Design the sequence.
């Protein structure tokens, strides 16, 4: 890897396109080239200057080319007149999009700042079960957003796992919304742009998979003393509800070639949480109803630091009514009886229409659920 790249780039699937994000060790301007076409982060005529580079690219073009080139021009300073830059990075990456109805996904969730132990679990998993097609970062990858340095965990995991060669799904967690740098996170992660805002919920398409990324925001009420008046997730969730209704009207999930419809969300909102975690209960029941109308095959979550399945139309006292199953799997790094650290991840495999979820510990599938 080029010395000016802090990590391999991450290729995030967002709506019909991708957003390629990469970090550099020095300040400058970056862009992506695909088949001779240059894609930039230009906004209002200006190219972004700094160490974080977030480049939207055409999805169909990257899928067809199966390769992209990262270009970075270092500007040691940016004076008012006559800035001088030097191209120091021109790295080409092979890229493998998902094609067809079969795919193999690995999920990191609730890593809470850990990198080495989760990556070891991933590497051992691939050695045993083969390469995955999709990587999912499903929330609480950082322990907080106290500083922008915390955002590097996502890039370290994506870089170490798929090295810029395969698509990544990103879903924000509630710990990611906490801290002085939390409002800066949209500049360091994929987002959709609607109504003048960057949003952290969207649909995407990978081969036969139609995916939906949802975001519950914080897990307690906006007025909770823990947040000190710094959040307002109620209108955010209302916009998300409106977005789901828009999905129903437009029916993009019925496009040709779709074989599975899977939603990803850090918080398993199908749970009936007790106070003070019972926030937005009515809204979340409406989400369940809307996802049922969309025909979601599975909701994949983390957050609970545990692994289990919520069945279709489950017990009303414990769970909301939902016409789809929920796979919950995440456990932060712990130590076994011998003091050795381990991380529990998850995997999802679709083969010939059959969908199977796995709990993954020490690189091995320890639990299996067919849907």
Sequence:
């Amino acid at each position: 890897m080029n010395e000016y790249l802090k990590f391999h780039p991450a290729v995030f699937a967002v709506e019909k396109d991708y957003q390629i994000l990469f970090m550099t060790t020095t300040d400058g301007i970056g862009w992506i080239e695909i088949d001779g076409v240059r894609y930039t982060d230009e906004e209002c005529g200006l190219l972004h200057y700094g160490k974080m580079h977030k480049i939207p690219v055409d999805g169909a073009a990257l899928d067809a080319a199966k390769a992209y080139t990262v270009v970075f021009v270092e500007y040691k300073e940016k004076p008012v007149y006559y800035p001088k830059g030097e191209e120091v990075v021109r790295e080409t990456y092979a890229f493998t999009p998902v094609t067809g109805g079969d795919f193999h996904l690995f999920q990191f969730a609730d890593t809470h700042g850990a990198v080495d132990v989760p990556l070891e679990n991933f590497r051992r998993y691939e050695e045993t079960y083969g390469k995955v097609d999709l990587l999912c970062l499903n929330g609480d990858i950082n322990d907080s957003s106290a500083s922008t340095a915390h955002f590097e965990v996502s890039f370290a995991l994506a870089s170490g796992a798929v090295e810029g060669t395969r698509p990544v799904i990103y879903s924000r967690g509630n710990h990611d919304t906490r801290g002085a740098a939390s409002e800066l996170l949209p500049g360091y992660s994929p987002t959709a742009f609607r109504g003048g805002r960057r949003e952290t919920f969207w649909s995407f398409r990978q081969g036969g998979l139609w995916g939906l990324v949802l975001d519950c925001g914080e897990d307690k009420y906006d007025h909770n003393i823990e947040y000190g008046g710094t959040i307002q997730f109620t209108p955010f969730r209302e916009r998300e509800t409106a977005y789901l209704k828009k999905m129903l009207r437009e029916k993009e999930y019925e496009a040709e070639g779709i074989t599975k419809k899977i939603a990803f969300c850090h918080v398993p909102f199908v749970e009936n949480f007790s106070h003070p975690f019972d926030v937005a209960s009515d809204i979340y029941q409406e989400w369940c109803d809307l996802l049922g109308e969309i025909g979601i095959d599975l909701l994949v979550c983390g957050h609970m630091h545990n692994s289990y399945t919520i069945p279709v139309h489950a017990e009303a006292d414990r769970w909301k009514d939902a016409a789809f199953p929920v796979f919950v799997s995440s456990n932060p790094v712990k130590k076994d009886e011998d003091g050795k650290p381990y991380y529990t991840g998850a995997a999802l495999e679709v083969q010939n229409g059959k969908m199977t979820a796995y709990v993954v510990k020490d690189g091995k599938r320890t639990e299996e659920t067919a849907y």
About this structure: The first strand starts at residue 10 and ends at 14.
